[in-house]
Amino acid sequence: MQHTFATDLTSALYTDMYQLSMAHSHFNYNRHNEQVAFDYFYRKQPYNGGFAVFSGLGEVLMLLQEFKFSSNDIDWLHNTGFKEEFLEFLRGFRFRGTVYSMREGEVVFPQEPLVRVQGNLVEAQLVETVLLNYLNFQSLIATKAARIKLVARGATLSEFGLRRAQGLGGMQATRAAITGGFTSTSNVLGAKVYGVPAVGTIAHSYIQSYKEELAAFRDFAKVNPQGCVLLVDTYDTLKSGVPNAITVAKEMEQQGHKLMGIRLDSGDLAYLAKQARQQLDAAGLSYVKIVVSNQLDEHIVKSLFDQGAPIDIFGVGTSLVTGKPDAALDGVYKLSMANNEPRLKLSENIKKTTLPGLKQVYRYHDSAGNFIADAVALDGECAPAMIQHPYEPDKSMQLKGYQSEPLLQPVMQHGSLLMKPTPILEVADYAASRLSRLTDEYKRFENPHIYKVGLSKKLYDLRTELRNKYKKDSL
Amino acid sequence: MQHTFATDLTSALYTDMYQLSMAHSHFNYNRHNEQVAFDYFYRKQPYNGGFAVFSGLGEVLMLLQEFKFSSNDIDWLHNTGFKEEFLEFLRGFRFRGTVYSMREGEVVFPQEPLVRVQGNLVEAQLVETVLLNYLNFQSLIATKAARIKLVARGATLSEFGLRRAQGLGGMQATRAAITGGFTSTSNVLGAKVYGVPAVGTIAHSYIQSYKEELAAFRDFAKVNPQGCVLLVDTYDTLKSGVPNAITVAKEMEQQGHKLMGIRLDSGDLAYLAKQARQQLDAAGLSYVKIVVSNQLDEHIVKSLFDQGAPIDIFGVGTSLVTGKPDAALDGVYKLSMANNEPRLKLSENIKKTTLPGLKQVYRYHDSAGNFIADAVALDGECAPAMIQHPYEPDKSMQLKGYQSEPLLQPVMQHGSLLMKPTPILEVADYAASRLSRLTDEYKRFENPHIYKVGLSKKLYDLRTELRNKYKKDSL
């Protein structure tokens, strides 16, 4: 028995068993070279919101390049009942498929394909699990981060969640938080891997390890004259913590230094921030910043500002890194082509019937650059001038005169990356620039406007045709 | 810039920045060898339930043995403003502390220490983040798994969650699900690492890759004569899927094989399971099992059985592996001793004031072996014959005549493991045996009985004394 962190997490065993069982069957019938296409999409906006931020692509692409079975993996698979020839085939397995994708950081909507994987039946199927695992989670967290940023009024946002994150997923939570607009993290390994600042102050235990709070503050400030943030709520925030921080700030001034901030981590943050600000300002310390942490989310950040709390920096943990209250994005990966024929998955519920064929997504914007609607069309179609409502046959929308851009671009061809990985801070910039083009009514928390994603007539008709055909066949 | 999975996740950089900032300060004042103790405990039962299952210890202990900074880590830390001597100290850093812990799989309750870490200020603080990250998440998931098992009436439970898990945390979710009573997983790498069976059937895409459902079933069954489970809801469960599965099962019988089961993954599972069971039984296939999946949790599993659904195997995904709706356990790590003096963290709220000193937890049971109450006592005390309510001075409980056992045992001494890691299936057995000794009223989902965790009089008095002292000091 090994342990998780001593395991090669890039192994192609990071998949669901049925992917291997199906591959085994396809191999047995010599169908493993049949060409297929799958779409990655999701059905419901997280947090009852009006948008999501697509995240995780960079990691998926790096992984697809590494995705293989080690000799040790193959040895282990000998105990699972697969035929020897199939295991030999797996020994040589590499992902050599072609991938089209939206740019990482794109603002995205339900039902539209975000990634399209084309390849043989085995490779396209084996990567399903890891693709869903990475994209679902990171998109969930990047979206949460973006929602917090929307109401942060320019305040600095730091990710503080590693201790409450879902195990090793905490690393990817840091990555996604940066994508959505956080600019630093408490997670030191995350800071190293993703190239962002690691930040942190002191814990209550540091102060408790001294006999007196003032002595603890003094010692810490002396060692950290730059970027010093003092935690002021260990004993009594307004009677002890803030006055002691003021004493130390004044002493720092005499040494030519400036206290960077104080941190509030408990109690009524709105009230305490206002009172602390008054005390600091009265002492001539208007430059000292107020940092708050403790069970924050987008609703609390918004409420703190609505109450007029003078907060400069937010440290956000649990809700951000676990994507509360959703905890998961419902992204799926569905077959759209096999043997050059478009396929769909029927459902009693038309909303769960999938969109057949190779597809492109066009985004339309007005002259100010604001996003108007998205069209899902068949690959090769130009941007349609009219889109159909996906479920209501009588509803359509004219898009004549709007400019459009195709969102799905080739990112990997026959297993080779077509571009260098995008640094995560560039991804974050892209997400911010795209979000700025989505108007406020789509971004509000309560009953957001629903962004229109329609189908081209050709795609709509193809779906209808295939539904009718499959329904007849299955009777 | 690297990527998450290409990173050594055992690095001591897997911590919060403030742990390093505090260590830097302690080192600077030559306090880094001061001896301290910390307790790991949590405050609130997950899922509004009456118990939790302690999980993740095995991984924490393995990690503590590996926990160090690589040369590359130290090089990177040069950019973070720490002094050269401190970085040299970190270069030689190893965890050499002593750890007391409850057994992994123990049934546990709020406020009582589950783990005690004793060591110097630096080592005890640096491991806080990873300890919380591993234990909070795995205990959350093991508890969810145990809750599902409670209502599963002996049905087989498989973990199916990797695609919706929180990134790499999905690996640890598999481990914790096993701890709580699941016996197999769809996660192939998890199966390999943790030594449990990998299970899986087929996806809708497999059936869609054929022109006809029956042909798909036939081909799959031929390659998988053992353990074959057919997914029957791609087109129409009762009109197409189940009849086709029956045809294939009859054909398998002629080859001397038996279809293992059918899987329902959509629709009204209670209704479909009953109807499918009738069709199978009418065809003389009473041995064919019914497997269900699709958005299950403990409440749905319970409801399915309450409705009389004849289900043999449950595949549980999202809710299990993300610990919905909680998504995080609120476990914390608090200083209890420094320089041989007991410490506590004050709070306006007595419930958030921590328990000072080195402590032991005693569990009492009646003559039938059922758990009665736990006592938190000072280390060295015998099991007290009476416990105090932790917050209500007038309430106490007599425990005379009950047998007791100490729950905290040494597991690591000066950085060396005192025992071999426990295989995860043994941990699961222990969890099951302990849960069987907790009576039903603590295990029900609605308003469970609150298990009594009291304090010894000595501990109660010590907390009172320190509270009064600190309060006076801070005024």
From TrEMBL, chains A, B:
| Claim: Ligase is one of the keywords in the record | yes
On modification after translation, the UniProt record reads: Transiently phosphorylated on a His residue during the reaction cycle. Phosphorylation strongly increases the affinity for substrates and increases the rate of nicotinate D-ribonucleotide production. Dephosphorylation regenerates the low-affinity form of the enzyme, leading to product release.
Give all residue intervals belonging to the Nicotinate phosphoribosyltransferase C-terminal domain: 359-462
InterPro entries the record matches: Aldolase_TIM, N/Namide_PRibTrfase, NAPRTase_C, NAPRTase_N, Nic_PRibTrfase-Fam, Nic_PRibTrfase_pncB, Nicotinate_pribotase-like_C
Q: Out of the domains of life, which is the source? A: Bacteria
What does the entry list under GO cellular component?
cytosol
Question: Which keywords does this Swiss-Prot/TrEMBL entry list?
Answer: Glycosyltransferase, Ligase, Phosphoprotein, Pyridine nucleotide biosynthesis, Transferase
The EC number(s) attached to this protein equal 6.3.4.21
Q: What is the recorded name of this protein?
A: Nicotinate phosphoribosyltransferase
Source organism per entry reads Pontibacter burrus
- Please name the taxonomic classification of the source: Bacteria, Pseudomonadati, Bacteroidota, Cytophagia, Cytophagales
